Write a sequence for this structure.
């Protein structure tokens, strides 16, 4: 590993990785070339992308030679889309298989965007701020979408859970 | 500790509906490559990975259902207190290592803890059990017997909920009445006893560890430098590693291990709270409480072990038979729990960016949305949020947490 990559890795492990790990993912430095750092997200890859801008700010502040950060999925670039628009397929699965079920908890999930195989969703209603939202997302929604849309690179939860006014379950001291 | 070698193992994770820890345990399982079967009293089955109905109020029937439907599993882990008894029941039926159910029950009942520690010589505050229906005179007499100042406690609540200090007999009667109202509001049965115990002044610490056939591997010792002296006992600032002298620290760890074994616990995580009693010119660790689970709330996020391993990963690995030799923490770290200081509606939490910008702060999470009703202790059953920090020293870490707290402006009306 080059000195530059070692320094970037040190910043990553100290300041960014704990947050990514807490969300079910992992990040590693896959390469550094011409000032561009390539980070590979693994585990639950949607856990890493929301922190990419913070990671870039921290790494560029600590390692001035770095000019840009790019995040890739496991194994490199996202695979080409399989059969039709990924967004349309994801939206159909959400509408047909997910939302009718989570409506029982006053919840709703909305597709907010698709970018290079990364699917962004927002949880609303009873799911927003719910103590079991992560269970719904990682045990329910993500595996269903992976089965129906295998070209999905990762699922990103863009919900502002801190602003959920009517979570179905609230955490409590135990 | 390495958590490799467990990838592919199948774990039944019992997740209660109202917990802070679901996402961190799922994240840990995901990172370790485990296959997770969720048992829950709240999670919805969406057709992805298995989610099974688990009712902690009916452990026998739920255990039977889980065993028949979960398929073979390599470990059963309770994510939070309400699922502990059910986890033991399932593990017993499947032949997996587990704590005896009566030990788990004792660990969730502060009166049972006090009795068992008294019977086994574990050092603790003088105490009296107050059965439901204890009259004022008997209560005042029991409080006087424990000694003033005293602490009146509910036996079934946690997180300092239903705990009040009293300085005299009248104060003890008032405290007991107040705690009875907290218990009623929490839906606890009216026949629950209360405890009155002597107030032990002194430095407070908490010990987290993992039991392996009764042997305790300590994962973290937190100092609690800002613990209040009453009347309520908000858990505020936790910083690790402890600054206690080595000899005192060793006594703390020995006491926590003995206390766990005295309850009959032999496997899995424990979280113990102790005070260093210096009243007799010595430094004697006195057991306050012990739970058969990891540290509460989101506090475990303050801990990161060698290789970036989380406490939840350690718990899961231990449940799968991979026990840490000597867990090594990274840098000094800490967490500050935010509490409601008055009752009302949470209107605003301002200054978050300023607080997060304090050097050393690694995270800030507000866990109650604006607009929700909040209550202070002894009623409060939720934390407003958590601030996390790292530093080169425990002192630096504590200073960062206090500075960040001072930049937050919490409006409750």
């Amino acid at each position: 590993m080059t000195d530059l990559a070692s320094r970037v890795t040190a910043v990553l492990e100290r300041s960014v990785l704990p947050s990514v790990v807490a969300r079910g993912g992992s990040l590693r430095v896959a390469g550094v070339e011409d000032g561009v750092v390539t980070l590979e997200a693994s585990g639950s890859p949607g856990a890493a992308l929301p922190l990419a801008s913070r990671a870039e700010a921290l790494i560029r502040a600590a390692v001035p030679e770095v000019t840009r950060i790019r995040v890739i999925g496991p194994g490199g670039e996202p695979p080409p889309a399989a059969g039709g628009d990924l967004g349309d397929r994801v939206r159909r699965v959400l509408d047909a298989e997910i939302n009718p079920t989570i409506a029982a908890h006053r919840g709703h999930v909305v597709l907010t965007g698709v970018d290079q195989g990364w699917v962004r969703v927002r949880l609303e209603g009873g799911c927003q701020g719910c103590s079991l939202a992560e269970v719904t997302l990682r045990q329910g929604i993500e595996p269903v979408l992976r089965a129906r849309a295998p070209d999905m690179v990762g699922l990103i939860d863009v919900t502002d859970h801190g602003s959920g006014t009517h979570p179905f379950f609230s955490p409590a001291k135990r | 500790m390495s958590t490799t070698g467990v990838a592919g193992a199948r774990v039944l994770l019992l997740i209660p509906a109202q917990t802070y820890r679901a996402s961190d345990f799922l994240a840990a399982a995901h990172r370790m490559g485990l296959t997770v079967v969720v048992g829950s009293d709240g999670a919805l089955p969406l057709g992805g990975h298995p989610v099974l109905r688990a009712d902690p109020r009916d452990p026998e029937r739920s255990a039977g259902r889980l065993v028949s439907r979960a398929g073979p599993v390599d470990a059963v882990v309770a994510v939070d207190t309400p699922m502990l008894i059910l986890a033991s029941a399932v593990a017993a039926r499947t032949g997996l290592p587990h704590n005896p159910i009566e030990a788990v029950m004792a660990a969730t009942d502060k009166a049972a803890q006090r009795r068992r520690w008294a019977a086994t010589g574990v050092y603790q505050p003088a105490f009296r059990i107050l059965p439901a229906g204890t009259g004022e005179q008997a209560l005042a007499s029991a409080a006087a017997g424990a000694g003033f100042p005293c602490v009146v406690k509910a036996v079934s609540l946690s997180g300092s909920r239903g705990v009040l200090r009293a300085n005299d007999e009248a104060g003890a009667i008032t405290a007991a009445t107040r705690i009875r109202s907290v218990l009623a509001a929490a839906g606890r049965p009216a026949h629950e006893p209360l405890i009155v115990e002597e107030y032990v002044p002194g430095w407070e610490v908490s010990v987290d560890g993992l039991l392996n056939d009764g042997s305790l591997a300590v994962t973290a010792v937190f100092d609690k430098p800002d613990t209040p002296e009453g009347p309520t006992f908000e858990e505020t600032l936790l910083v690790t590693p402890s600054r206690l002298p080595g000899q005192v620290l060793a006594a703390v760890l020995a006491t926590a291990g003995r206390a766990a074994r005295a309850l009959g616990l032999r496997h899995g995580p424990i979280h113990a709270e102790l005070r260093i009693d210096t009243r007799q010119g010595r430094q004697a660790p006195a057991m306050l409480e012990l739970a058969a689970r990891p540290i509460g709330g989101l506090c475990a996020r303050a801990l990161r072990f060698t290789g970036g391993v989380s406490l939840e990963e350690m718990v899961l690995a231990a449940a799968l038979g991979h026990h840490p030799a000597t867990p090594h923490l990274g840098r000094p770290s800490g967490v500050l729990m935010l509490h409601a200081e008055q009752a009302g509606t949470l209107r605003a939490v301002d200054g978050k960016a300023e607080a997060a910008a304090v050097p050393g702060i690694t995270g800030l999470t507000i866990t109650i949305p604006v607009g929700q009703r909040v209550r202070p202790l002894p009623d409060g059953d939720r934390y407003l949020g958590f601030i996390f920090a790292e530093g080169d020293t425990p002192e630096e870490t504590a200073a960062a947490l206090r500075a960040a707290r001072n930049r937050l402006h919490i409006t409750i009306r």
Notes: Chain B is about 30% helix and 25% strand.
